[in-house]
Amino acid sequence: MKAKARQLIWLSVIPFVLLLSSCTSLYKSTETISKSAYESGSDSMGVVLLSVNWGRRWGCGSFENAQLHSFGFDLLPPQTSDDATPPGLVLNNPSPLTSRPVFNNYSFLLPPGEYGLTYLKIKVAKSVSEVGAFTAKRSDNIENGQSRIGSFQVKAGETVYIGNFGVDCAHQPIIWRYFTKGKEDFQKHLDEFSNEYPYLNLDRVSYRLFQTEQFGLNYSLNP
User: In angstroms, what is the C-alpha Rg of the chain?
Assistant: First the structure.
């Protein structure tokens, strides 16, 4: 089955909810890495680098616009199937009304292991008065202890780049894992992280993208 067909099948089971009020987040955002946390925990934990485009995409499928609202990852296999329990890593759009269509850089300190994307919320609008969201929770996304969307891995003492996330509009709105291509541009991207997180040692960063069969293309830097 082609990837786009699988995407549409997957999308069809995600509940669409018409919002009567502001689009709120289900879970609190995970704090990005601090200098003190990095200095005390970087040997036993892993550093995860990623970027997110929170901006609106206009003319997105059958919608006037769409934007990534929030998403989250669980250490696999999840310790609970209860959707009320927040994922281990949560990212929320910091300003949905004013988000610009640029990639924002994030760095997190996480226990080592494999993390699956288990929570997703995409805000969509057909008009100013018709606003809703596609929301997929842990109970929608986990099958046999694995995420139906995809996963990434981080090792103890490692710093790993897993990609750039945003909305794709080839058909209906979906999350998509993009990536920074080529060694030169990747180094420029790391320089951005260094400017924002000057206490991180980014001399040796693993380039290992969030792995997915449906929501991103495969790519790796040549050695």
Answer: 17
CA angle 37, 109, 54 (to 5 degrees): 120
| CB-CB contact of 116 with 146 (8 Å) | yes
Cis peptide leading into residue 94 (ω within 30°): no
Kindly provide the residue ranges of all beta strands, DSSP E only, lying in 96-158, ordered along the sequence.
103-110, 113-125, 131-136, 142-143, 146-147, 151-154
Entry pTM: 0.89
Dihedral sign of CA atoms 174, 179, 181, 185 in order: positive
Length of the chain (residues): 223
- Mind listing the pLDDT tens digit for each residue in 168-196? 998 889 999 999 999 999 999 999 999 99
pLDDT at residue number 18: 45
Buried b (16+ CB within 10 A) or exposed e, 158-184: bbbbbbbbbbbbeebbbbbbbbbeeee
What are 68's two structure tokens? 């990534």
Question: Residue 25 and residue 21: Cα distance in Å, rounded?
Answer: 12
Asked if residue 86 lies in contact with residue 72, where contact means CB atoms within 8 angstroms, the answer is yes
Domain ranges of the chain: 3-207
* Phi, psi of 106, deg, nearest 5: -130, 145
